[in-house]
């Protein structure tokens, strides 16, 4: 009977601990995930999340242009837009841009309404998007300024890129792993433990993420006028980030 009572007491104590754990997890369910946590299933591990960034000056750009044309009927606007687009592409090639760097990205045709006359159709507009990539940074301002003479009447966005993205991302990954060790050592010391070896490393950030910083450029399109001064381009820096989760043993 005494052995049975001890067994029942142990079971009750275990149930109380499990109940307390469940309450704690429920209470913290809506809280943001911590950046450094002790593995609940293995008290001999510390799991740390770390994020670091590397900034790099972009050395090339990608510009999204568009050519909009208007005419009285769909066939006329299609012919006019085709002529305008061909003129623009010829201009781009004449500046030394490789044909492989020029892409027609979108087409759109829509009616033009006179809303003051009962939604009457007064004509049609066709818009063709053109993306130009691999533009050397020192040529971007000149290209934007001179493009208006070739028939480009919309500049949708400018994307700044770096040819050093890959190596910069690797550097950010290395820094993220190194900073995770600093966090883990502080946690281990605060717990009266010492840090052991790395037992697992997981990359959280996506290496295939967009490799550029994009800026809207709608306002620039309105400033492109014949004889206008060259548009000043200030690309700044691209921020490249890497995030990892590292698990360490503790002893």
UniProtKB/TrEMBL annotation:
The keyword tRNA processing does not apply. InterPro entries: 26kDa_periplasmic_antigen (IPR052022), SIMPL/DUF541 (IPR007497). Transmembrane segments: none annotated. Gene3D superfamilies: Protein of unknown function (DUF541), domain 1, Protein of unknown function (DUF541), domain 2. GO terms for biological process: DNA damage response. Keywords: Signal. Coiled coil: none annotated. This is DUF541 domain-containing protein.
